[in-house]
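ok so for the tutorial part 2 we go from a plain amino acid sequence to predicted structure tokens. step 1 is just haveing the sequence, like this:
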Amino acid sequence: MRIAISRVVLFFTGLALLLAALVSALAVPAGAAPSMLITEVPSSEPATRTPLPPPPPPPADTATSIPVDTATSIPVDTAVTTNTPVPTATTSSGGGGSSRKSTPVPTSTPTETPTPTETLTPVPQFADPAITKSANISNAQVGDTVEFTLTATNRGNIPASNVVIEDTLPSFLALEGVSATRGDVSVNGATIRVTIGDLAPGEVVTVTITARVVSSAAPPNNSNIATIASSDATDDPSNNSSAVSLNVDQPPPAILPNTGDPEGGASIPVLVVIGIGLIAASLITRRRRV
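step 2 — the prediction. this is what the tokens look like for a chain of 290 residues:
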């Protein structure tokens, strides 16, 4: 009696496992189709064509006056005639005898007219060192390398004296290298200093800084400023600094490998094998009893 109960239990357990495997197989789709995003596009009636107004009539030809060079008179020395009376003798007769009277005669006296002289306006002398800064990228991630370019020039008309460039890197950048086309380069911690000295009018000095991004940064703490200074009193302070902002994104999250089977494909064969094993065990037990 106990053997019969055991055989029945094994048979129905195996059958239940087979049914569970069949249900799981039917529930799992044959191939996972990629998800599809369906976006409804609202339909709109066709646009009604509006007639355009007729083009305006072409403008009538009008006479345009063209300025013509006119002669400019240049003052020159001219002679001005001034009448100066000169006495002349006039004879008149009377009852008692004749008398002589003097009549003035005009004479010419030249007068000189002064010639105007040209006045020269002196050109102001000044020195104006200026700096601009740029970067090869505007967005970066932690671990990226950034290259900054500093360009110094003198916008004045006389040499600038004691010119110095400074650039202090922010905490999210680590210095990897610096070079300059002219001047002495020194580094103190995160501060870079380039001593140029005299800078001629129109001369250009370029400084290249290479840095590595070591942490994330967000506005307003993501800018890097370079400055230029000199000993000239005529220097314009409005162009003595230049800043560059760098957007540092957060690194993407690490993707762990998938060690399981989300679709349950590996569990179905296991259920089939266990179910067949239980049914076979029940049949073997029945034969032994017979």
